[in-house]
Amino acid sequence: MRTRRQAFTLIELLVVIAIIAILMAIMMPALQRVKTQAQEMTCRSNLRSYGIAQAMYLDDSDDRYPSAWTSLVKTEAPVGGYQRYCRWHDPRYPADGPFWPYLKAEKVHLCPTFNVLAKSEGARHPSHDPANPIDPYYSYSMNAFLGSTNGTTPGGVLKRSRITRSAAEVFFFAEENMWARPGCSNVLNDNALCGDGRDWFGTFHGAKQGDWNGGVINLVFVDAHVESTKSALQITPDNRADISAAEYGRFEKFAYPFNKAP
Question: For residue 204, what are the CA distances in angstroms to 7, 66, 209?
Answer without folding.
Answer: 51, 27, 9
